[in-house]
Design a protein that fits this description.
By secondary structure, this protein is α+β, with helices and mostly antiparallel strands. The protein has helices at residues 21-29, 40-51, 78-87, 102-108, 113-116, 130-147, 157-160; strands at 2-4, 10-13, 65-70, 91-97, 117-120, 163-168, 175-180, 188-195, 202-207, 212-215, 223-231, 240-245, 253-258, 266-270. A 4-stranded antiparallel beta sheet has the order 9-8-11-12, with no helix packed on it. A 3-stranded parallel beta sheet has the order 3-4-5. It has a 3-stranded antiparallel beta sheet with strand order 6-7-10, with no helix packed on it. Helix 2 (40-51) packs parallel to helix 3 (78-87). The protein is globular, with a radius of gyration of 25 Å. The N and C termini lie far apart (62 Å).
Length: 291
């Protein structure tokens, strides 16, 4: 599978799209380069939420590897997103070209770094990595596969996936999530949420026995994307997704001016629900005195 990214990640093809080496190579030859920004954290989140799902071709019993290829320093928090993947048992290899930040590559990549971090001065030099990287990848897959439990079911369905995500009690800064657990209780849940128009993803990890969460400290009047992922010992089940907007902040109403004098006035208004302080700004009208 392959995704390109700038400020908006784009899936070029899923893991299930091609079944032969020649088909994959032909797809690579036809790939159009996507220029733009370098939001690596958003891209890694996209890979987890879109490309590593069973309906995108990710087999539950197979090892999960992500190879990141970048030529610049990330403009968002790549380390947080990478840590989420690594916590789920997904191995990350980081390859930098030209202006890539080597310190960031080492933060993002899995251990041991001598096998998972590569840096070259220009794109043509990537060809020199192919042989070694191929051997390392195949060896890592074999090593991990030998340790895996062979009893993992191949099909998720209701067995491993929660259902019926409900978002309620929405205010200007909070919302409440509930969902129905899968038939096989997960070890933990991972909840990811972020503004749909861009923002650093935040996450909460819950015990698998819990099936509700209160999200707080949200931004008012903002649309949020919410995802709930069940986490098992060796696999991540298919996630639930929802979209909800927080309410706008309430405003003060009925502003009145009274008790006018040559250098003072009294202001009064109806309170805004939930306000803890007010900021009052005063300036002279055009052609008036100084502020």
């Amino acid at each position: 599978g392959l995704s390109q990214y700038s400020s908006d990640p784009r899936t070029e093809w899923d893991l299930s799209a091609y079944s032969t080496r020649d088909q994959v190579l032909e797809a690579v030859r036809n790939l159009r380069y996507k220029g733009g920004n370098t939001f690596t954290g958003l891209a890694l989140t996209h890979v987890l939420e879109q490309n590593l799902k069973p309906d995108a071709g990710a087999r539950l019993e197979a090892e999960k590897l992500v190879i990141l290829l970048t030529d610049g320093k990330s403009q968002d928090d790549a380390n947080l997103a990478a840590q989420t993947l690594k916590n789920l048992g997904i191995e990350i290899f980081a390859i930098g070209v030209k202006n890539a930040d080597e310190a960031e590559l080492k933060q993002v990549a899995s251990e041991p770094l001598e096998l998972t971090v590569y840096n070259v001065l220009d794109f043509p030099l990537l060809s020199s990595l192919v042989g070694r990287l191929t051997r390392v990848l195949c060896t890592r897959i074999k090593e991990k596969s030998n340790k895996e439990n062979a009893d993992i079911p191949v099909n998720t369905g209701p067995q491993l996936s929660p259902t019926d995500l409900k978002i309620s009690a929405v205010t200007s800064k909070s919302m409440h999530l509930t969902w129905s657990p899968p038939l096989r209780p997960p070890k933990k849940y991972r909840i990811v949420y972020y503004p749909s128009k861009g923002g650093i993803p935040k996450e909460v990890v819950l015990d698998g026995a819990v099936s509700s969460l209160q999200l707080s400290n949200l931004t008012s009047h903002t649309e949020y994307l919410v995802s709930v992922f069940p986490i098992y010992d060796t696999v991540v089940g298919d996630g639930l997704r929802g979209v909800t907007s927080t309410l706008p902040l309430s405003s003060p109403r009925s502003l009145r001016v009274s008790e006018l004098s040559h250098n003072s006035m009294r202001l009064s208004w109806k309170a805004a629900q939930g306000a803890t302080q007010y900021l009052v700004l005063c300036s002279a009208a055009p052609n008036g005195a100084e502020d």
